[in-house]
Amino acid sequence: MTEQKREPKQDLPAAWWAMNLDELDHEIARLALLCRVSILDPGAVERVLKRDASVCGTDNPIAFAKLHDMVMLHLAIREKSAASVGQAATVAIERQIIERLSKSHPELGAPWPSP
Fold first, then answer.
1. Is residue 114 predicted with pLDDT exceeding 50?
2. Number of domains in the chain
3. Which end of the chain is more exposed for a tag (fewer CB within 10 A), N or C?
4. 34 lies in which domain range?
5. Alpha helices by DSSP H, 11-50
């Protein structure tokens, strides 16, 4: 039997990781808006990860469960991105995404008005 030559594994480019993180983070933003979570506030992500629904400004258990899952997925993809393109490139990608989300959804970092 002849031995097949394998090509070295190519890491995915930073643009691919940026696109995937951007799409995921837009879904996180949408779910945060549904739950009225100021997701860009310090500590908000940690509270979502701990399933602390008191971070929500409204009661929406289904959207909050999805928000938790999307944040978990973001962390998994971020870890793979850092392994592929490096920590510095991943941080730069995240900063760009946060900046775009902050501009397009300023309410994500602002306190919610009382109902």
1. no
2. 1
3. N
4. 14-108
5. 14-35, 44-49
What DSSP letter does each residue of the chain carry, written as one string? -PPPPPPPPPPPPHHHHHHHHHHHHHHHHHHHHHHT--TTSTTHHHHHHTT-GGG-SS--HHHHHHHHHHHHHHHHHHHHHHHHH-HHHHHHHHHHHHHHHHHH-GGGGSPPPP-
Q: Alpha carbon 56 to chain centroid distance?
A: 17
pLDDT in tens, 47-79: 999 999 999 999 999 999 999 999 999 989 888
> Is 30 within the bounds of a domain?
yes
